[in-house]
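Subgroup meeting minutes
Present: P.N., E.W., G.H.
Scribe: E.W.

1. P.N. recapped why we're keeping a running log of single-chain structure predictions: easier to compare across weeks, and new members can see raw inputs and outputs side by side.
2. G.H. added today's entry (130 aa).
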Amino acid sequence: MKKTLNEKIWYGVFVHHSYPVIAQEINSPDNHFRRWAAVYTMEHYLKRTDIIDLIEEGIGHRYLFIMVDIPTAYIDIFHHSWDSDLYDRNIKIIYISAFDNEPSLYEICEKLNVNPERFEASWKVEYIFD
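Output recorded in log:
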């Protein structure tokens, strides 16, 4: 059976559009980094100039998938507030892809070996770029 988003997350993303971003932490090959996979619902971010460098590829699409490595030292300093020095902080975008429908999300997840069942609201997994 193909893995999908859990029901609550699915409704929040594809029906009600109530989750601006969902994410999951995945294993990073480097213990100085934490890695996340995140899905942005772009309608929530069209006026967010503070993170435009991160999400600009998603403009014109409904969703944006990002896999990113963030240094643990940066996370310790960050404390859940935005810092515009995104690219000055050794943050590595591993993968980024805009998409417009649910099947495309599952294709991306399969390609990257990301389990869609593990996506949660961003605050539940300490994803800092929301």
